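Weekly structure sync, notes
Attendees: PL (lead), two postdocs, one rotation student
Agenda item 3: pending single-chain targets
PL asked that the sequence for the first pending target be pasted directly into the notes so everyone works from the same version. It is reproduced below exactly as submitted, 442 residues in total.
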Amino acid sequence: MAQPQEAKGSSNISSYDSYFKTVQSRKKLPHSLQEVLTTAFAKIPVSSFPGVPGGKVVEIPADTSIGDAVKILSECNILSAPVRNPDAETSSEWRDRYLGIIDYSAIILWVLESAELAAVALSATSATAAGVGAGAVGAIGAVALGVTGPAAVAGLTAAAVGAAVAGGVAADKGMGKDAPTAADELGQDFYKTILQDEPFKSTTVRSILKSFRWAPFLPVATDSSMLSVLLLLSKYRLRNVPVIEPGQATIKNYITQSAIVHGLERCKGRDWFDCIAAKPISDLGLPFMSSDEVISVQSDDLILEAFKKMRDNQIGGLPVVEGTKKQIIGNVSIRDIRHLLLKPELFSNFRKLTVRDFMSTISTSQNTGKAVPAITCNLESTLGNVIETLASKSVHRIYVAGQEGEVVGVITLRDVISCFIYEPPNHFDDCMGSALKEMLNE
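Predicted structure, written out during the meeting:
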């Protein structure tokens, strides 16, 4: 087993190197400017980056039930949180103290990977959206408890869907001070059921982490450089980077790709930012992948296939296209998956549901009346325009459209961050020893 793992790890690192090599070769920026920026970011300590709202990072103990974990996420208006090992509370080693990160996408995609019994159980009842009512949850739980072996595990995941879906929507709707209100709107019946009934009691966050993980848990110290964080969030494809206090193994901050891009957007007016932001995206080599490399989904494809493509390729969203020219008409993201089970009319027929019908239904539920178009730019757009759009819309990607509306590329948060830096030789060897490669090789 060791050889395949080593091969996989080597392949991961090679893909990171290949991506960043492509980025650097296509940027039309003076090398002197890139050196100045990289050197500047290397001198900025991570401790100077703004903290999370409220000043304290929310953590979830590994032995927390899925129901309780969803309640925590929804009440705190967050979509993910570090998972703490309750067996190592006094450890000063972060490797012992933290096991990973839990989020809604992991929970729900774990359900899909368990697949068949979950589909049967969820299709069997449409009495209450997302299994929020005690009757629906009880029906699913009964199916789960009536079987053994792998099928029982699938039943547990099916029952967990109700908690994940309802909580995810509450977190999305509850903004800022309204988060507790949004959580309360799930209803006392919902919380009473998931907190007291099986299988929620016996399905823990720890079991989810063992079944599904998108990226390694790799923190940096407060005295590390922001360059290290930017590289982890760009070249090394992490979505978030926990920050720990040296010698204490306590998470002090939680830096995401979105937070970095919002930070860049606030740098308007500074010479170094304006110099780069004024350039058309083509001068920076964007988009970094060709139109043939963009993974998309046709509007008449099944929505399940769209989510499977995201899972298999470890990407957060897909453009929805039509015709041979791939004209873009919309977008589906991994966060939309919860809507698949939110409404009875969706999950009762989700194995036959097309992407077009899915988009139409969820947009109607959001009171827009029609499918929300994908956010796009063109090859003449400036990097500043792209950053402003990503920040103001709070989205993770913007699609590059051609003259006839066809998809010619995609620009992600990762790509934007990559435009501002390069990796000095042996940077992580100097800053983090072998920790980075070791974690990526897992």
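Discussion points:
- The chain has a mean pLDDT of 74.
- The radius of gyration is 22 Å.
Action: rotation student to compare against the earlier draft before next sync.
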